[in-house]
Amino acid sequence: MTIEELIAAARNGSTRAAGRLLSLVESPRRTEVLTALGRHVARVIGITGPPGAGKSTTIAVLVAAYRERGLRVAVLAVDPSSPYSGGALLGDRIRMAAHINDADVLIRSVATRGHLGGLAEAVPAAINVLAALSYDVVIIETVGVGQSEIEIAAVADPTVVVLNPGAGDAIQAAKAGLLEVADIVAINKADRDGADQTVRDLHAETDAPILKIVASRGEGIVELVDAIDAHHRADTPERRAARARSQILSLALSAVRTRPDLDALATAVADGEVDVYTAAASLFTSANVNENPLSTLQ
Amino acid sequence: MTIEELIAAARNGSTRAAGRLLSLVESPRRTEVLTALGRHVARVIGITGPPGAGKSTTIAVLVAAYRERGLRVAVLAVDPSSPYSGGALLGDRIRMAAHINDADVLIRSVATRGHLGGLAEAVPAAINVLAALSYDVVIIETVGVGQSEIEIAAVADPTVVVLNPGAGDAIQAAKAGLLEVADIVAINKADRDGADQTVRDLHAETDAPILKIVASRGEGIVELVDAIDAHHRADTPERRAARARSQILSLALSAVRTRPDLDALATAVADGEVDVYTAAASLFTSANVNENPLSTLQ
Description:
Two copies of one chain form a homodimer. The first copy, chain A, is α/β, with parallel strands linked by helices. Chain A has three domains: 1-38, no CATH class; 41-234, P-loop containing nucleotide triphosphate hydrolases (Rossmann fold), CATH 3.40.50; 259-297, no CATH class. The first copy, chain A, is built from 13 helices and seven strands. Chain A has helices at 3-11, 15-24, 30-37, 55-68, 118-132, 148-153, 167-175, 178-181, 195-203, 221-233, 237-257, 262-270, 276-282, and strands at 43-48, 73-78, 105-110, 137-142, 159-163, 184-187, 210-212. Chain A has a seven-stranded parallel sheet, with helices on both faces. In chain A, helix 1 (3-11) packs across helix 2 and helix 3 (30-37) packs parallel to helix 5 (118-132). Chain A is globular and about 60 Å long. The interface between A and B is large, with 57 and 57 residues.
């Protein structure tokens, strides 16, 4: 199938064609696909938090809430250790089972395959594909233990951090830098002991609104959806430009991190053969680049 | 004075000439000074931690320990909010008073003047100047609340994180990413309650050796110096290359962050006029650069 045929099939409801397009924008054919699609915009919501906090359950009830409004929803689960090659459907996620047969819900794993910066490269293009296929809302789930969240925060509006009551999650979230990127904090399983104390502790660490939810029973979800809406409505050109700036920097850093000559430069600096300023500058001189270090991105 | 005259004066013991050279390598004349000096190597020790942890006290006793061995010591205090223009002597630091009149100890504040990435640019050159002026050991103090530590960790071997007993410092250190860059953790004021508990808590978070010290009484300093020596002796070509790689990436990121066209690109992306991949790629095309975005660094 040509790219135009894939787009037509995906727009006619073929999830297989949609999946193929999403794989293509992670390949050297990205520009070709994006050009054929044109530019499209969707609402992007980031959901992050430590393992076990209940992100998938929270997402499942959020999906239901948006479906009740008649919106089409795509879920991208970013899993650096995903065993799926290129991102298979997450049919094994019990919590999502209710949505598996809903044609207006697409659930997909984005495997970053261990590439540093892979996420920064893959996600903006995937969002454009999903928006072009008339998904109104794109929910991005990250595992919340590394760099991914900062990159997702540059794309998402808002970023929701899901934590459980107790000091453990709060410390882990602080350590991973989650509190700095949080636009909204949701304390899930808030019927457990210590939820109020956790809310108080977190108020000392972040200015973001902090909500208590029990996702498995749907408690607090109306308020969470309202908080997400309120944050989105409050978006400004300045905030959009700040997010775009972060995305550009993430991509640029990703481009230099994946430069084939970086290890040789590092060794030369370590051995005293070249100073670090000259080495860094050489990353920007075309003599060392096949025209453009970001050429693989375009 | 010419640069050659400044170098001669500094080598003859003029701290004023040394200070002038350190200022010059933060200016567009950096390359000129570095070329005149040639390449020199010093041992670099990073000291970081939350405000109030006792970093200056710890450094004062470390300086005394190295002086007893006959080594010349320079201290660079990185203070992003420093009121000193270009970095004055820190004569007001009471703890350092003992060393103020020691000709073999140089104490200087590096003001990064709010430039993003300023530290990544300023510090390697400053270390080269100090090494050329026969300082054997360079101790770099950072405030331990931001990005500075990651950049210093790329230069220092080892990075020592100073904390106090109690959960507060541990959480703050985790939040700032200090535990990830720590080669050695020193629990200062370890005569206070809770020191052993803090050691246990931190062992769960880091593999780095954890020492208890009371810097104000000199307790545990012999062990700290031994741990610093042991870490330094265990250095390998691979570790040196990894640090060089981090320095190169920091400089490259700093170069794109300070690009004059970055804000305009971000606005264009936010307004949908250009996609983020094209915007990032344009940072690497010479058409948008006056030859080289790192030209100000050279």
